Every structure is written in structure tokens, then in C-alpha cells.
Amino acid sequence: MNTALCTLLALALAGSLPAGDLHGKVACKGVRNSADAVVYLDAIPGKTFPAPAKHALVDQKNLVFIPHVLPVQVGTTVDFHNDDAVLHNVFSPDACCSKFNLGTWPQGQSRSYTFKNECQATLLCKVHPEMEGFVVAVPTPYYAVTKADGSYEIKNVPDGQFTVKVWHPKLKAAQKAVKVAGSTQADFEIAR
Amino acid sequence: MRHILKPPFRPFGGLALLVGLFLGLATPLRAYPIFARKYQTACNTCHTVYPKLNPFGQAFRLNGYRMPKETEDLVKQVPVSLGSPAYAKLWPNAVMPSQLPGNAPLAMNVKMESVSTSAYDPASGKTTTHNDFQFPQEANLFGAGTLGDHMSFMAELTFGENADGSTSTEIEHARLDFDSIAGPDHLVNLRIGKFAPNLYDGFQEMWLMTDNGVDTMFTYNPVGYRGGVGSGADDAATPIISLPGRVRGIELYGVAGHRFFYTLGLMSKIGPGGYSGAYGGATPTSPNGNFGNNTHKDFYARLDYKFGGMGLDGDTEGVKLPPENWRENSFRVGVLGVSGNGRDINFSVADDLGNPFNMQDVSYTRAGVFASWLFHDLNVFGVYLRGNDKLQLLDPVSNLVLDENTRSYNTWFTQADYVINPTFLASVRYERLRPADPTVKAERFLNLNFTYLVYANVKAMLEFREDLNETRNKQLAIVLRAAF
Questions:
Q1: pLDDT over 50 at B237, yes or no
Q2: What's the pLDDT score for residue B73?
Q3: Domain tally for chain A?
Q4: A179: domain CATH number?
């Protein structure tokens, strides 16, 4: 009886059941492949999500930001690690992350930045102007990045009606309402 | 004191003139396999038969070597980043980002030509025939491409071998374009360098399928004791003022509303190349189209409108086009003009008795109409051009003006190109030039061409050209060209 009550209480607190996953494909028109689109659930009214304690990581290796696109939940601290034998810098020209500039540091060291707001932050390196990466801070823990074929999967999505957004470094963002019930498919097409 | 201008002084003999016309003015090669590599596409995506552009190729050219509505996935050679695009947000605190072509944007063209020339010399009454293997006649090294979203470039270095065994090298083109720099895409583009101006879009030699260019249009020499007497040659001992095929200048051009084309340009004056001496001197140091040696700059303009077919920027909204990309039903019409000043440039002329004078073309205008009708497999196009030259006759010692007259000439040509099928094409052109000197007969030429496109990048041509006034003056050329 106590167990049943606890279960009911937990369900009531959650508001919905973690019933399945959201998956599908994003067709990215006009770019070489459909990788690097971020698919995420927009803010859910009445719901807040604590900032994750675990840091995310962006590596700088062979003069490339790895991963090229990193989605994180708002409040996440991202560590920027220099894995090259040359000095690297990380800064962003975007106001949503206060145009941070973490300075310059050598191989083996890291600098960190906490993304406190929703943001599509461009990562640049003053030492190597061709380097470019992105941190996309989203309001929920439900997000994924597409593979080259455009496929994505967001696990443990509760059932319910949500606004699902898609962001891409080069293409226009898109969104649509999706009713998630168990394993749900939602496909998108984005272009310039 | 007014001098009556007398019969013309011919700056060079008839034979030399014809040899110059037939041998020295053959069309340079122009096709850029650089773009075939960049887009991994065949030459005939843009060319009906290179270098003649089809409507898509014309749009590609006017768009600064970009495909209409180009997207990243169309470009198969990934460009080299010269800065992340996000650096644009930081300008001017950071250098504006750009790109380099992924591979060295170079291509070669070679041209082999077997030329048989028959030329009649009225002085001796003899007809001279000449068969010449010009293997190679010339080779061209091209560089062309885009630098990011708003710049493009083109350069051409030509290596030529002459019949006498001498060789020549020339930078035929070297230009930088700033593309779509204001307003809607393709509306405002700026070009600087040495180039074939858009003033001649569609009829300059670099856009013709024939081996011979329209010499009567571009090599007329307006300077003569009674006005110009006919075509000259840009490597002749006496320089010419005409309509330079290539210019050194600055040009603004663009496409508005998909169908309206304009160009405005400022170029080094037409006239002799670099000439030594205070008044032009006597020693040419560079051919026509190169630096002029006075401070005047000539102005040119052209306005066109295209009815039907693909838009000039490649727009196809609401247009039905057949899959054969050389076909469409369209009509393009344009007006063009040049205004210039050749003051202080002396040319040598002589009267009937051989008395020498200096002559200056102190003011000149060229005004013309261009039309091109494309119907199914047939393209008929042509230009009518009228020129006025204010010629001053000067004392060769004191350089005082002895006489001044305004002389007029007109020239026109019409050409019909026909695609028999994608492999075989034919062309016929008639040219007529009415020189300013009224005592000189109008020049008339017939040019026939049959082209076999062996591969998309290799073609063989049989071309015949005849002087209709003197049918003993003719040329038959067998040409093999390859671009790679």
C-alpha cells in the first residue's frame, strides 16, 4: 500500500510518465550533410530542471573544436580543453553568453564557462581564426544532435504535448508542436 | 588654316593587313575547367560549346562564378576557411572572414591550329598562299574562382608561338570582383583589373563559338588622313584606336529584377598601347588595350533587357525550360556606348604625296545596339555600331593644329549559331565595316564554322573566312582545342 502511494506521489510530481523517446530525421537542405542540427524540447510551462552538476567537455584537437556542436542544458558548465601542442583561445562574440573570452592556455589545460541562459554561442579561437564551434544551451534536458543522415533520438521523454525546436549553425531554425506518446517520430526540414 | 583631307594613307600593305587579320587575331581560348572540378560537373553545364555560354552559364558568370541560388552542397571541393563566418560579427575588430578555393584554381587550355591562308597583294598582283602548322598556336593558364561570398577573381596568362618562331606571353585578364556588395543579390558588383568588359557581353571573342573574333568590330583603325580606312591589327607597327577587346578599368555591373542588365565602366583610354615619347613617339611598347599614355579615361555603358527564357541571374521562377540546357525561347536587346578622348596622342599619317603629319583623335564616341534571339537550337545575334571621331591634323614639327574634322564609321555583324545536336554545331557570320574615309570601299567578311565536340572538353573546328570584296583573300583553319 505504501509502495503504491509512493508511486502515485512520484507520478503526480513528475506530471507525466517518462514513457519513451522522440526520434526522427532532420533534412538539412543546402548543406553537405544533415549533421549538427540540435533538436530539443522547448521550455515546459510549470517545469524547471536543475542545472546538471556534471561538466560538459569541448576539446580542441588538431585545430578543431570537438564536438563541432554541443547542446547542453542551461546552467551547464563547459570545460574547454586544449589537446593540441599549440596555444588555444576560446571566446564568443554572442551577447547571450556575455561575449566571454577565456584567454589563452597551453596543451593539457582547460578553462570553463557556465552557460546561464538559453544561448546559441559561437565558439572562436583568436589564435586560429578558421576554428569554429557551437554550444547550444537549451531549457530542458531533452535534446540531441543529428547524425550525418539527419537522424536523432531523444530518450526518456515524458508523454505530453511539447514544442520541439531545431537549430542549425547555417540554416534557419524551425519548430513545431509534437504530441509525445511512447515512442514518437517527428521529422523536420530546414533550409537557408 | 584649313587643309582638305586627301586620300588615305594606308599604314601597312594589304598583304600585311590580311595576314594580320587572318593570323594574328584568332580567338584566344576561354573555358574554365576549374569550375568543372569545383562543382564536379561537365563543361556543358555552362557551355553550349566552350567558350560560348548557355543561359545557365551566362547567369553563372554574371553571378561572380556562383550557381544561381547556390548552396553549400553544390560545391564539391570544400573551400579553405580564412576565418570562421562568425568573425563577421566582430568586424572591424577582426578581419572579415573569407575562403580560398579548396584546390589550386588553375586550368590549362591548348590550341592547335592548321591554318591555310590565301592573300592577294594588289601591289604585286600576286596571290600568296601559306600553310602553317601552329602546333600549338597558344596555351593559356587560367586562374578563376570565388573568395568567400562576395569576391571572385579571374586571371589568364597566354603563351603564344608565332609563325616566325618567336614567342609571346601576355596577361590577358587579371581581375578582382566584389560581388553583391549592396542591395539585393546580383544588383551591384564591382570589377577592377584587366578584363573583357561586360560592354561586349555576348559578342566579344571570349564568348563566341567561332575561332575568329569579330575583327571589324574590334580592330577598326579610325585614324587616317581622311578618316579611318579599315581594320587594323593590334600588333601592327602603327597603333590603332578602336574598340579595345580588353580594357584596364573599373566596372560596375549587375542584374535587377532578373531581366535587366546594366554596366558602367571607366577604362584606360582606347588608343595605342604604351608609347614612348612626349607625343606618343614612334615606338610601341605594348599592344592595344594596354595602358594608354595620356591621363584621360574613357567611359562606357550598356543597358540590356531579356525577354523570355532564364533570367539573367539564373532565375527560373515561372519559366518553363526544356531539359536541353542550350535551348530556350528568348530575346535580349541592349544599347551600348563609349565616350573617350585621345588628346595628346599622336599618330603618324601622310597625305597622297607622302608628306607626314601628326593626327590626334581628340574626342570619340561609339554607340551601338545588341540583339540576341535564341529559339530552340538557333541563336541569332548581332551588333550595329556607329563611331564618331574628331580628328585633328597637326604639324609634325610644331604640333600645331592644321585642321579638324569629325569622321564617322559604322560596322555591323550578324551571326547564327545552330546546335545540330550536342556534338555538332555550325555557325555563319557576316561582317560589314563602312570606314570613315569615303574613298574606301566597305569591308565585308564571311565566316563559316563547323564544330565537332569530341568530348565535353575537347573540340575540333573547321573554319573558313573570306574577304567578300576580294575573294582571293581567305583562310581555312582546322583547329583542335582542349581544356583541362
A1: no
A2: 87
A3: 2
A4: 2.60.40.4130
pLDDT digits (tens, 9 = 90+) for B414-439: 999 999 999 999 999 999 999 999 99
Same domain, A29 and A95: no
Out of B78, B82, B87, name the one closest to residue A124 (CB): B87
C-alpha cell at B54: 548557355
Q: Are A106 and A87 a contacting pair, CB within 8 Å?
A: yes
The per-residue pLDDT for B17 is 42
Residue A6 lies in a domain: no
Name the range with the highest mean pLDDT among B272-281, B291-300, B364-373.
Answer: B364-373
The CATH number linked to A109 is 2.60.40.420
pLDDT band at B127 (very low <50, low <70, confident <90, very high): very high
- d(CA B130, CA B132) in angstroms, rounded, equals 6
Cβ distance of B84 and A93 shorter than 8 Å: no
The SS3 assignment for B287 reads coil
A101-105: strand order across its sheet? A69-73, A132-138, A119-124, A88-91, A101-105
Q: Where is A60: in which H helix or E strand?
A: strand A56-61
Q: Which amino acid is at B444?
A: R
Chain A residues with beta carbon closer than 8 angstroms to that of B83: 129-130
Chain CA centroid to CA B63, Å: 19
Q: Are residues B72 and A132, on separate chains, in Cβ contact within 8 Å?
A: no
A3 in a domain, yes or no? no
Q: Are residues A55 and A108 in the same domain?
A: yes
Strands (E), B66-166: 80-81, 99-100, 106-121, 126-146, 151-161
Assigned CATH for B14-483: 2.40.160.10
Q: Give the DSSP H or E segment for B14.
A: helix B14-19
Q: Do the chains contact at B82 and A129, CB–CB below 8 Å?
A: yes
Q: pTM score, two decimals?
A: 0.83
Q: How far is CA B285 from CA B17, B219, B274, B281, B289, in A?
A: 20, 18, 5, 10, 12
What distance lies between CA B294 and its chain's CA centroid? Answer: 23
* CA separation for the pair B44, B423 (Å, rounded): 11
Please check whether residues A39 and A56 belong to one and the same domain.
no
Containing structural domain, residue A121: 50-138
Distance in angstroms (rounded) separating the CA atoms of residues A59 and A82: 6
User: What would the 3-class secondary structure string for B384-440 be?
Assistant: EEEEEEEEEEECCCCCCEEEEEEEEEEEEEEEEEEEEECCEEEEEEEEEEECCCCCC
Q: Which of residues 14-73 of B touch A (CB under 8 A)?
A: 71-73
* β-bridge mates for residue B444, sequence order: B432
Minimal Cβ distance to B84: which of A31, A94, A132:
A132
DSSP state of B212: B
CB B30 within 8 A of CB B50: yes
Whether A131 and chain B come into contact, CB under 8 Å, resolves to yes
DSSP-derived 3-state class of residue B342: coil
* pLDDT tens-digit readout, B339-356: 998 887 788 889 989 999
CA–CA dist B227, B440 (Å, integer): 10
Q: Are B248 and B194 in contact (CB under 8 A)?
A: yes
Lowest mean pLDDT among A113-127, B23-37, B220-234, B378-392: B23-37
**What are the grid coordinates assigned to B441, written together?**
570601299
Question: Rounded to 10 degrees, what is the CA torsion of B66, B72, B74, B78?
Answer: 90
